[in-house]
Write a structure and sequence with these properties.
heterodimer, A: alpha/beta, five-stranded mixed beta sheet, 13 strands, about 65% helix, B: alpha+beta, five-stranded antiparallel beta sheet, 5 helices, about 35% strand, globular
Chain lengths: ~775, ~170
């Protein structure tokens, strides 16, 4: 990723820039709070105005101030009625009229209290006639009370009545005036109050309007903020989508890279083995010292390259999660001894001493994946040897204590160049070595420690490192290995190989092609093992049911039942037969068929042509005796027909078996050829593509064993055509194959590998 | 729909029969007033003591359940204590259930009062002010009064106008 990648992910369009210009959230919050406070104040103001109005109206109501006018009028009326009653009583002073007069008087007096009090005085303060009139009325009541009080002081004589009447008359005009002016005054008060209410109503309306405006502003701001939030979310979503798309892309690219790496390593490995084989052969030829030196260097380089290729394969498997640890009973002491034996030579060649100690309390038999455990130990040890110039390398195996309780702890201690702390952290990372200078000085791809640590973790353990620059490093591998008892004798578990006395193995070979069967029989015979043959998977399963075998060599593509199904069927057999080692033999080493083979229960896979050293190594690993090889023949003639025959294979054939055996095999191959071609044509005519594919595959396998390169290629082309849809290409591929078969046969005859004119050739149309 | 009038009619008939029985047994159940009549209740009722209705002297009123409260009024500067008979108790005493009534004062002041409103407002037929009998010149002897202080919703001109003083007669409708 380049530095400006984030800008690519978040394009800054003009619109985005405008978004940046809107108030920052803090400013927006400030304005919102200002509006909120203003709104609250406006609400308070409106509430105050309402409260004032309520007070005004409530006060009026409570004290019935408006009724004052009515009270004055009532007083005036009662004065008139009293006067009337008094006049009647004066003209007819009987008990009844006097009693009525008394009641009138009392009512008049009771009315006085309603207008003659402090509040009324306050209201009427502006009216100058109020006080004198009230005084006048009070004076009259004082006079009246002498006769009308509860306990009258004097008897009501006609004279007294007349005098009272006269006094009452004088009240008429002032009371009338007061009644009128009170009314007017109250009108004024009502008008004033109305005005006040109107003013307050106006204020209320203004405040309400203000509130409305504020509310609108508030709503607008909130809306805007909400929209901004929404837009931001949308932008984030778009960004997240882009990021996840980018991630998916990166992941798929990485996956593709892993697959490519795995395939490439595999593709490279196959010819590489050929290269190594050739160099081994070359080494056995008479060479000058200089040539031997060159060859040695070339072989070292090739071995190193092969190791790197294997590392890359492991990495790609680890990355895709296809690397599996297969635990089995392992003799730990023996495994450590093997590692020691192999590394001792390297250490000694550098003048280093290698000590291996193993504590007594370390369990001897444990469950572990021996191949992977050895891989880790080799890696740690070869690193120690590589980075140590003088001193020693010490391997200590002990039972774990403390946090590592239950583990077996392998410590690899060297007196090498050591590492500082930063390097110790980085050293487990891919492609990292001590530093660039050490990388240049010591070589290597820097994958070993990463693989080792990943493997250790896959086994449930870990690798740690302690180091002091220029003093040395200690790599500690702690693995939780399950302690078990020694496996019973005769079990089908493959020994971890190596230095034990090899024995004759009973090998079941499932192979459909007769030439390959003959070849394998010859090779196994040469290696001193006994071979039992099955022509298809079904026969192989039957044989495995009936007899004990030390190992099964299983061709993957066979008629009736293929190798995968046969392996599954054998694995389903009762123990110990169900556990016999099965090794796949195949002409195509694709990773998926490898994976499929593993899933079918096969232990490993070797690719055809299965050369004698390869088979010997394989069988030695499974407990077979290591037979010595015959000396390779003298230098091979110049390869003038490399595109038709693989001389290396043929030479190896001649060397490991015999030229006669090869000639016999080649003879039977070409003898069966016309029948096979006829079968192929039949299948092609019937458009039975899978039959064509199977036959072509068997042909390819046989041709591979015999080193007939052109036939191999054409058989492969026919297989390709069989998996394609066109019938035409099938026939043309068949024609080409037939032509190449003839060419190959002619060449073999001319090279003297085949007796001349074994069978009449078919003319090519 | 036709059930309603029938039901109503039956109820009314039953009530009438009951009233007739009661009248036969307890007509003139109310004692006649011994002292000066201070309040006359006229109209439909079960218990009467005069052809017009029920006439009360002060002693008769004081024998009924007594209630009192303090309240401010437009007519007095200070809150005053009013003591008297709740309208409900008065109507129960005479066995009356009127819809409306008219209060008539000594000075011929008249006011219509819906009985529901009056009962809901706990209208008091007061005969004492600050525990003393009221003279006519003190707006007595009988005053209709609402508890304005404890019931703010009563404070309005209509209710003030219904608080009649110098009450003479209650005419039930």
């Amino acid at each position: 990723m380049s530095d400006d990648a984030p800008h690519d992910l978040v394009p800054r369009s003009p619109r985005d820039r405008r978004q940046q210009a809107v108030p920052e959230p803090r400013a927006r919050r400030f304005w919102l709070s200002i509006i909120g406070v203003a709104l609250a104040l406006a609400l308070l103001g409106a509430a105050y105005v309402q409260w004032r109005q309520y007070q005004l109206l409530d006060g009026t109501r409570h004290f019935q101030n408006d009724a004052l006018g009515w009270s004055f009028f009532q007083l005036e009326a009662e004065q008139l009625r009293l006067r009337n009653e008094m006049q009647q009583a004066a003209s007819d002073p009987t008990g009844d009229t006097l009693q009525k007069l008394q009641l009138r008087y009392d009512i008049f007096v009771s009315r006085l209290g309603l207008v003659d009090h402090e509040r009324a005085a306050r209201i009427m303060a502006a009216q100058s006639s109020y006080a004198p009139t009230m005084a006048q009325v009070r004076a009259f009541v004082k006079s009246g009370d002498r006769y009308f009080a509860e306990n009258p002081q004097a008897k009501l004589t006609p004279e007294a009545m007349r005098s009272l009447l006269a006094e009452l008359d004088t009240l008429s005009v002032p009371l009338h005036d007061l009644s009128l002016s009170a009314s007017h005054l109250l009108y004024e008060r009502v008008t004033q109050r109305n005005a006040a209410v109107r003013t307050q109503s106006k204020q209320g309306i203004a405040l309400t309007f203000f509130q409305c405006v504020l509310l609108l502003v508030f709503a607008f701001t909130v809306l805007r903020q909400f929209r901004a939030l929404l837009q931001r979310r949308e932008r984030l979503e778009v960004l997240a989508d882009r990021l996840s798309a980018a991630r998916a892309e990166a992941e798929s690219a990485s996956r593709a890279k892993s697959v490519f790496l795995a395939n490439m390593s595999h593709e490279i490995r196959t010819p590489f083995h050929g290269l190594l084989g050739m160099m081994s052969l070359l080494q056995e030829t008479p060479l000058t010292t200089q040539q031997a030196g060159y060859l040695h260097t070339a072989k070292d380089s090739a071995n190193h390259l092969l190791a790197i290729l294997n590392d890359i394969l492991d990495i790609s498997k680890l990355e895709s999660g296809n690397l599996h640890v297969v635990p089995e009973p392992v003799d730990l002491a023996r495994l450590v001894r093997e590692v020691d034996a192999l590394m001792r030579v390297q250490a000694q060649s550098k003048g280093l001493s290698l000590n291996v100690t193993m504590d007594a309390d370390v369990p001897r038999w444990v469950r572990a994946d021996p191949t992977r455990l050895k891989q880790i130990l080799f890696n740690l040890l070869s690193n120690a040897v590589k980075f140590t110039a003088v001193g020693h390398v010490h391997v200590r195996v002990e039972a774990g204590t403390g946090t590592a309780a239950g583990c077996v702890v392998f410590s690899v201690i060297d007196t090498g160049i050591g590492m500082d702390e930063a390097t110790q952290v980085r050293v487990f990372q891919r492609f990292v070595q001590g530093d660039d200078t050490t990388s240049r000085r010591h070589g290597g791809a820097g994958l070993g420690l990463e693989i080792s640590r990943s493997l250790a973790r896959l086994m449930g353990g870990d690798i740690t490192v302690k180091s002091v620059p220029n003093e040395g490093s200690t790599f500690v591998l702690a693995l939780p290995l399950l302690k078990i008892g020694p496996p019973s004798a005769g079990s089908a578990v493959p020994p971890t190989g190596g230095d034990g006395p090899g024995r004759m193995l009973k090998v079941l070979v499932a192979e459909d092609h007769p030439v390959n069967r003959i070849y394998l029989e010859a090779v196994l015979d040469k290696l001193g093992h006994q071979a039992v043959f099955a022509e298809n998977g079904e026969e192989a399963v039957r044989a495995a049911q009936e007899q004990d075998f030390d190992i099964v060599l299983m061709d993957l593509h066979m008629p009736v039942m293929d190798g995968f199904a046969a392996a599954r069927a054998i694995r389903a057999l009762p123990l110990p037969r169900g556990a016999m080692p099965i090794v796949a033999l195949t002409a195509d080493a694709f990773q998926d068929s490898q994976e499929q083979a593993r899933q079918s229960g096969m232990d490993e896979m070797i690719t055809k042509p299965a050369h004698l050293p390869q088979l010997r190594d394989l069988l030695v690993r499974y407990g077979g005796a290591a037979a010595s090889l015959a000396t390779p023949p003298a230098a091979a003639p110049a390869d003038s027909h490399a595109d038709i025959v693989d001389r290396a294979t043929v030479e190896q054939f001649h060397a490991t078996l015999s030229p006669q055996k090869y000639t016999a095999l080649l003879g039977s191959f070409f003898e069966s050829q016309s029948a096979m071609l006829a079968r192929l044509r039949e299948s092609a005519d019937a458009a039975d593509r899978s039959a064509v594919w199977n036959q072509a595959h068997a042909l390819k396998g046989a041709a591979l064993s015999l080193g007939l390169r052109a036939v191999v290629e054409q058989a492969e082309a026919l297989k390709q055509a069989a998996s394609g849809p066109e019938r035409h290409s099938l026939h043309s591929a068949l024609d080409t194959l037939e032509r190449h078969l003839l060419i190959t046969r002619d060449l073999c005859q001319s090279l003297g590998w085949l007796p001349a004119a074994a069978s009449p050739g078919r003319t090519v149309s | 729909m036709s059930q309603m009038p029938r039901l109503l009619r039956r109820t009314l008939l039953r009530a009438a029969a009951c009233a007739a029985l009661c009248c036969a047994a307890t007509a003139w159940a109310l004692d006649p007033p011994a002292g000066k009549v201070v309040l006359t209740v006229a109209g439909e009722m079960q218990h009467r003591n005069s052809p017009d209705g029920a006439a009360f002297d002060m002693a008769m009123l004081q024998k009924l359940p007594q209630r009192s409260f303090m309240t401010k009024t437009p007519w007095y500067a200070e809150p005053r204590k009013f003591t008297g008979v709740a309208l409900r108790d008065l109507l129960d005493a005479i066995g009356a259930a009127p819809k409306a009534m008219r209060a008539v004062a000594l000075n011929d002041y008249r006011v219509e009062i819906p009985v529901d409103d009056a009962l809901k407002g706990d209208l008091l037929v007061a005969y004492a002010l600050d525990d003393k009998p009221m003279l006519v010149r003190d707006k007595g002897p009988i005053v209709l009064m609402f508890p304005f202080d404890s019931r703010p919703e009563l404070r309005n001109a209509v209710n003030y106008s219904r608080a009649a003083w110098q009450l003479k007669t209650l005419e039930l409708r």
